[in-house]
Amino acid sequence: MTTTTPCTKAPIILPEMSALAQLSGLPALGELFNAFTDLKELVENWSVKQKFSFKIADKDHERVIYTCVVPECQWRIRANQTEESNVKITVLNSEHNCLLGDGRKRYSVSSSLSWLRRHLPRHLHITQATKTQEIMDCLRVQFGELLPYKSASRIKNTLLEDTLEGQRDGFRLLSSYVAVIQQSNPATYIRLSSHHNTDSFQRLFICPAESQESFRHCLHFIAVDGMFLKTLFIQTLLLAVTIDSNGHTLLLAWAVVESENASSWEYFLLNLQLAIPEIITEATTLMSDRDKGLIAASYVLAPTVICAFCCQHLKDNFITRYRRGLASNFWAIAQAYSIAKYESTMLALQETKPAAAEYLQNIDPTL
Ligand SMILES: [Zn+2]
Predict the structure, then answer these.
(1) Alpha carbon of 4 to ligand 1 centroid (Å)
(2) How far is the CA of 305 from the centre of ligand 1 (A)?
């Protein structure tokens, strides 16, 4: 969800704020974009230009809904993916009727971190020597944004890390970082590996001692997934989480690897089992999104581990492949607790869309 911290002071918007005037804003109903990210950039510009804050009310592969951060406000944009894979604005309420009069005055800091990353470097060259106050002054003068000191300090660090050399320095410090963790918390399971020839970074796996201990008191359920890291070096973050007795998600372990592939998942699953021996000694369910590399690597799992697929992922792929209206059929089949119920719900789908029923039937039921 994209929200920004409300600021009580109203911004001073001067006519000479040319940078603010040049920002794009106010899209049109029916306007087409190449991708959802292009639409988000435009909405971010619009919010900075007109001084309001928005949030993502709903988003999936096919649509996005942005609303004003004030719940009662009618401001809203909805965009859907078209059959030609463009993104089209299908609902546009461009006027605010925020509670407390005017959301534009109430939320004077509209800029999100992603917006600041794109726009601040165009107006200020950020180096280690840049003072946080200079960043705040630049944003106030150029865009009428009253950025709090803490946020300005954060964007400075983010932009410094964005540079290639800054990120290289981060990799060089990794072995010291591992040594500090091992010294302060020796029970942490941590593995750092380098490429043989170049001694450059290959992979890192961390499972804190607290996660190892917590897992003993949790349901023996683990969900694993991977995601791209938004850095200049192409890396992937692999994660394992569980659910504690309060129903909260608990991070068990994470790894930074080259990509999601059979070898990296094998590395992750082997280390996960070594870090948390209860996975091997007691029955544990491991849920994933059917990544091909993960399926190929699952042979390293102990016999105590039962693999399951995440129905939310299955449903997302299913409605992307077929159509959104079949989601209710999917859930009726997925949640059938008897064979008779499964067969009747599958038959209903077969009558509506035979290919969709065949697609679901081809998913290995033993996984
Ligand atoms: Zn509003």
Answers:
(1) 13
(2) 49
Reported as a single tens digit per residue, the pLDDT across 82-133 is 887 789 999 999 888 876 445 444 445 567 888 898 889 888 888 888 999 9
Q: Largest Cα–Cα distance of the chain, in whole Å?
A: 71
In the structure, ligand 1 is a single-atom ion and the residues with CB under 5 Å from it are: 68, 70, 73, 75, 96, 98, 103
What CATH number is given for 174-309 in this structure? 3.30.420
Cα of 280 from ligand 1 centre, angstroms = 53
Token look-up 């409605």 returns 319
Instruction: Give me ligand 1 centre to Cα 23, in Å.
Output: 19
CA distance 44 to 46: 5
Q: Which two three-digit tokens encode residue 93?
A: 């309420």
Structure tokens that stand for 285 in this block: 């369910």
295 and 308 Cβ atoms separated by less than 8 Å: no
Distance of CA 243 from the midpoint of ligand 1 (Å): 36
How far, in Å, is the centroid of ligand 1 from the Cα of 74? 7
Residue 205 to residues 168, 196, 202, 255, 260, Cα–Cα distance (Å): 19, 18, 11, 4, 14
Distance 319 CA to ligand 1 centre (A): 32
CA of 60 to the centre of ligand 1 (A): 23
Per-residue pLDDT reduced to its tens digit, 131-155: 999 999 998 888 888 888 988 999 9
Of 47, 87, 41, 42, give the one whose Cα is nearest residue 68. Answer: 47
Give me the DSSP letters along 207-222: E-HHHHHHHTTS-SEE
Alpha-carbon Rg of the chain, whole angstroms?
25
Q: Domain boundaries in the chain? A: 18-162, 174-309, 316-361
**Quick one: which of 140, 143, 146 has its CA closest to 119?**
143
